[in-house]
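chain below, 216 aa
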Amino acid sequence: METLVTPDETLTRSAFLLAFDLRKEKLTGRGELGYLLRAAALAELLLAGHLADESGKVRALTAPPGAGSGTLPAIVWEQISASPRARSWQRWVQKHNGKAVGVVRDELAGAGLIRVERRRILLFPVERITPRKAYLSRRLAERVGRAIRGGQPVARLDQDVRVLAALAATARLKTVVQSRRELRTDRIQQLSETVEPITVALRKSLQAAKAAAEAG
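prediction:
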């Protein structure tokens, strides 16, 4: 069976590529993207056995192979392992979420998967990010969208597809979720089974961010 995530396409990189709206030629959901990327990094570490859930708290286990590399999963693991006490998944989804976008952006640019153009309009810096291989974003959106909408039993989906679908559905990423009617609660719960503490934390983080924005 074809896998969605290759060694060069980690869950965090795939989540970033999934956020490209190819019709509008831009990233969608910029306000939520940092939370989504942090959640993807946590999922990557949890599934690989580098993190454990202890009654809703996160515990660091063995260091990932890329520790110290500056990738987002490495940065997240280092933050957790250096924490003086165990903290919640929501804490680690929220921490420095704004910086997460830049970290993964630089990873993808270094790998030649995206193009980053910077210029100024009047005195304001403007950044334009476009995929160099649009078919990767298109393939991701097609497979993750099908996983969310159903049609194939969850058990038959690759683990990376299930996890990306669970995270994207939780974040209501517009490239794969067109309306709330597509979000069947039982389906999302099945997709989230292996990373449930993270999808719960992502949902609560986004709800808190929305409430804070509305409160001004």
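The chain has nine helices and seven strands. The beta strands are 20-21, 26-27, 51-54, 57-60, 87-88, 114-121, 124-131.
thats it, cya
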